[in-house]
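=== RUN LOG ===
request id: a7f3
mode: sequence -> structure
chains: 1
length: 201
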Amino acid sequence: MKFIRTVVIILSILALTNCSNKKQGNDKDQIIFHVDSLLLDSTYTNSKLEIDFKPPKNWKVISDELMESIKANTETISDSINIDLQKVFMNKDISGFCFISTFEENYHSRNFVKDYILEIKKKNSEKSIKEGNFLYNDFKIMQLSIFDQDNINLKLIIQSQKQKTFLIDYIIPMKFYEDNLRAIESSIGSLSNKEKEGEKK
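=== RESULT ===
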């Protein structure tokens, strides 16, 4: 259970750091991610969110048993907002994690994203936090950045054209970050709208 407690702690401090170039847009910056397919694993499709996404290479889906344990231990991660984990990928060699999550369906107030960000800031008040907004592949993305001496925490709060809001979080130990930066950038850049990709075929 020590491992599960570690995951719970990590989940409570997720955030996002810059790893791409920007172009000026109308109301937000347009981001260009440099995607290297050799650094990516198989495509994960979420039919509910209508997205395709690829985790970094060798970041594998965790077992159902571990997934249930994480869910059971993260129900009260926020005082007022609960997160529904959809999928968790893990690189055991570097203790890296990638989470795809949604907000619970019964919590969609007008300002629920702002409420969630306030919760993150409150729980990480002793850490340095940066934030920003950008557009990528027709997704509106809110970026948060939290750093500490042990981990780089990456968070994307994403809204699709169909007003579906979800999260993609990366966590990686600081000592492995530089060597895995390109893979994480490529993974973020793999995010696409499933319906839109289908229309191109």
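=== NOTES ===
Residues 8-20, 197-201 have pLDDT under 50 and may be disordered.
The CA atoms of residues 75 and 96 lie 21 Å apart.
=== END ===
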